[in-house]
Amino acid sequence: LAKTTQPISMDSYEGQEVNITCSHNNIATNDYITWYQQFPSQGPRFIIQGYKTKVTNEVASLFIPADRKSSTLSLPRVSLSDTAVYYCLVGDGGSQGNLIFGKGTKLSVKP
Amino acid sequence: KAGVTQTPRYLIKTRGQQVTLSCSPISGHRSVSWYQQTPGQGLQFLFEYFSETQRNKGNFPGRFSGRQFSNSRSEMNVSTLELGDSALYLCASSPVPGQSYEQYFGPGTRLTVT
Question: Residue A65 has what pLDDT?
Answer without folding.
Answer: 93
